[in-house]
Amino acid sequence: MELPFSESYKIKVVEPLRRSTRDEREKWIREAHYNLFNLQSYQVFIDLLTDSGTGAMSDRQWSAMMVGDESYAGASSYYKLKETVGEITGFDYFLPTHQGRAAENVLFSALVSEGDIVPGNTHFDTTKGHIEYRRARAVDCTIDEAFDTESEHPFKGNIDTGKLEKVLKENPRDKIPFVVVTVTCNSSGGQPVSMNNLKEVKALAEKYGVMIVFDAARFAENAYFIKLKEKGYENKSIREIVREMFSHADAMTMSCKKDGVVNMGGFIGMRDEELFHKAGVYNILFEGFLTYGGMTGRDMNALAQGLVEVTGFDYLQTRIEQVACLGKKLREYNIPVQVPFGGHAIFVDAKKLLPHIPKERFIAQTLAVELYLEAGVRGVEIGTLLADRDPETRENRYPRLELVRLAIPRRVYTNNHMDVVAAAVKNVYDRREKIGDGLEIVKEAPIMRHFTVKLKRAER
Ligand SMILES: *Cc1c(COP(=O)(O)O)cnc(C)c1O
Q1: What distance in angstroms lies between residue 263's CA and the mean position of ligand 1's atoms?
Q2: What is the extent of the structural domain holding 74?
Q3: Which whole number is the average pLDDT over 396-411?
Q4: Which residue's CA lies nearest to atom 3 of ligand 1?
Q5: Rounded to an integer, what distance in angstroms lies between the CA atom of residue 140 and that of residue 149?
Q6: Are residues 119 and 43 in the same domain?
Q7: Distance 284 CA to ligand 1 centre (A)
Q8: Strand, coil or helix: 95
Q9: pLDDT band at 400 (very low <50, low <70, confident <90, very high)
Q10: What residues are annotated to the active site?
Q11: Which of 106, 147, 216, 309 is positioned for an S-S bond with 282, CB 3.0–4.6 A?
């Protein structure tokens, strides 16, 4: 018989998990003001809040940490990382930062001004935050299929070149500092961007003389999908695909807490020396000297090793198959989930699951709270809370989709854990008609409110 699929690693170190009772969880979530970010980790059984910085490092990464060079300037760890980044991405100029949003802060300080417009596929929240903080505007040019959770389009992260060209045509060139392409597109469901789309976007940007910046947090997962789904790439290695992807970008920011498989770290890659010098000034101001920029030598060593591991086919197959394993289970239970399954998470369609809750009452957050109460599983809302208010009108922005994201940390949970999660979602689904009236905001911050918002159960 055909051998079943299994993980491409074995386990050397384990961390105990604590189970809790429903009564405990009721109390904890009330104390957390129905905001899952406010829970303490011991209050969570299976933590699918994020795949960011939550991965398990390999024995090779841990051993690389031991030989980190902590010199303030010119550390060997920096040169090692710079070399690896160069080999994998092809970018000659490189600035380390402490995480992805720090890379955005540094690069956007050099590139974005008030009144600018930054088109892209659904911008990640910190990306959008850094654009709007500079009084510029992010314009979403993702293809329409991305907003249909049932469309089987294989590359739902793609940019609609018609929408993009409209933005490029209708605005003066000096108002558009760059186009941002997020690979994979986190906010639209960890959905990949095809190589062909990257090529088309590059051609358009060239036509209008605009730079392309990749938000490359999950570049390797994107490459895996290209290999699996795009004609002509079946026989190319992940490394070859990655190099080709980045050949269509002028610069990149990266949150290494994702496809760096480290717990902290980020960087900027650039082709242009002048941009490197300009951004370098901000790196020194905000992050640290050019050869460490917010990272320790040991962090940089672990990251260099992580970048090598994450571009291995076996690693990626284990990773993406585990995500799909959860997705398939949920589909078996008739749970409305986004298809095709993304690279780092499964997205439950909360509007379809809880159609009786009005959009003003935070549908996806309500579902995320119920899932926590059911089994101590922590997911995250990708809906109205995250979409925040319009910066001008201050009205709630109601996104087309209300999703609960179940993000899977890299190399952390087993497929048994995925079975528990799926059963918990099914139990919530079975009692969906009894789920009350949603939630109301008690207190919120002026920007990126979802992290700190306080909620209460809504009254009829
Ligand atoms: C996580 C993420 C960021 C921000 O990175 P941090 O390391 O969390 O600061 C930016 N873009 C995308 C697509 C991300 O997933």
Answers
A1: 12
A2: 59-310
A3: 94
A4: 100
A5: 17
A6: no
A7: 21
A8: strand
A9: confident
A10: 72, 124-125, 215, 217, 258, 450
A11: 106
Are the C-beta atoms of 309 and 261 separated by less than 8 Å? yes
Query: Cα(306)–Cα(458) distance, rounded to whole angstroms?
Result: 45
Residue 16 lies in a domain: no
d(CA 72, CA 288): 9
State whether 134 and 197 are in the same domain: yes
Q: How far apart are CA 162 and CA 164, in angstroms?
A: 5
CB 40 within 8 A of CB 413: no
Say whether both 242 and 119 belong to one domain.
yes
Q: Are strands 377-378 and 46-47 parallel, antiparallel or unpaired?
A: parallel
User: First-to-last CA distance in the chain?
Assistant: 57
Whether 126 lines ligand 1, by a CB cut-off of 6 Å, is yes
Selection from 377, 301, 359 nearest residue 25 by Cα:
377
Q: Considering the entire predicted model, what is its pTM?
A: 0.95
The reply to whether 2 falls in a domain is no
Ligand 1 centre distance from Cα of residue 21 (Å): 33
Give the residues across from 382 on adjacent strands.
Answer: 403
Per the structure, how many domains does the chain have? 2
Q: Is the pLDDT of residue 364 over 80?
A: yes
Apex 81 CA angle, 13 and 9, nearest 5: 30
Q: pLDDT tens digits for 238-289?
A: 999 999 999 999 999 999 999 999 999 999 999 999 999 999 999 999 999 9
DSSP symbol at 217 = T
Instruction: Encode pLDDT of 1-23 as tens digits.
Output: 998 888 999 999 999 999 999 99
303 with 396, same domain: the answer is no
* Residues 247, 104 share a domain: yes
Angstrom distance (rounded) from CA 105 to CA 132: 12
C-alpha 435/C-alpha 457 separation (Å) is 11
Read off the tokens for 418: 């995925």
Nearest Cα to 362, choosing from 390, 188, 394, 370?
A: 370
Q: Which atom of ligand 1 is nearest to the CA of 182?
A: 13
Amino acid, single-letter form, for residue 248:
H
For residue 236, count other CB atoms closer than 10 A to its CB. Answer: 17
